[in-house]
Amino acid sequence: MSSVSKAENGICLSVQAFARELKCCRKHLGEKIKATGLKPAGTGQTGHPTYRMADVFEVLLNEALQKVAVSDDPSQWSPRDRLDHYRAENERIKLETAQRRLIPIEQYEDTLSTAFKSLALGLETMPDVIERDAGLTGCEVDIMQRIIDSQRQMLYDSLVAQFNG
């Protein structure tokens, strides 16, 4: 039976009791405790060393944080972790594509191209349509054409800046 004692400075358990409660290997837990140089808080009823719960948890938490902080760069991870990461990313991309939250770049470019071609055609034919339907003079149409051309150029420059910068 494992030793559990209530010390002045907290609850103390033997390595075996910690391993049983945390559902981990007693041997590996003992090696982790020994590697950190954690001193026993006392001895239990069976004569085995006992350790403060807070100290053991600190050892385990520090180890877990070191694993997490190793790197955010998958190329630095172990092959198994890297494989799991990329499999999960592929599944996420498939799910988002199926839910139509993610579309292929070719589809986006085609849709954008079609929209701007329609806009350009409308801007090019607008002066002729207005001249015919509103009865504008040639001088008024020329002024309108210059304004439309300058606005179209500003739109083009803005789009180029967005995609290049």
- Taken as a percent bin, the fraction of beta residues is 5-15%
- Major sheet summary line: 4 strands, antiparallel
CATH architecture of the largest domain: Orthogonal Bundle
Query: Termini separation (Å)?
Result: 69 Å
- Mean pLDDT, rounded to whole units? 86
By DSSP, the count of extended strands is 4
Counting helices, strands and paired strands, the structural category is alpha+beta
Low-confidence stretches: none
Tell me the name of the CATH class of the largest domain: Mainly Alpha
The radius of gyration over CA amounts to 35 Å
Order of helices and strands: EEHHEEHHHH
The CATH topology of the largest domain is Multidrug-efflux Transporter Regulator, Chain: A, Domain 2
Please provide a written account of the structure:
With 165 residues, the protein is α+β, with helices and mostly antiparallel strands. It has 3 domains: 4-69, Multidrug-efflux Transporter Regulator, Chain: A, Domain 2 (Orthogonal Bundle); 71-102, no CATH class; 105-164. 68% of the residues lie in helices and 9% in strands. The chain has 6 helices and 4 strands; from the N terminus they run E-E-H-H-E-E-H-H-H-H. The chain has helices at residues 15-22, 26-36, 53-69, 79-98, 105-134, 138-164; strands spanning 4-7, 10-14, 42-43, 49-52. It has a 4-stranded antiparallel β-sheet. Strand 3 and strand 4 (49-52) form a beta hairpin. Helix 5 (105-134) packs antiparallel against helix 6. The longest helix is centred in the last third of the chain and has 30 residues, at 105-134. The radius of gyration is 35 Å and the shape is rod-shaped.
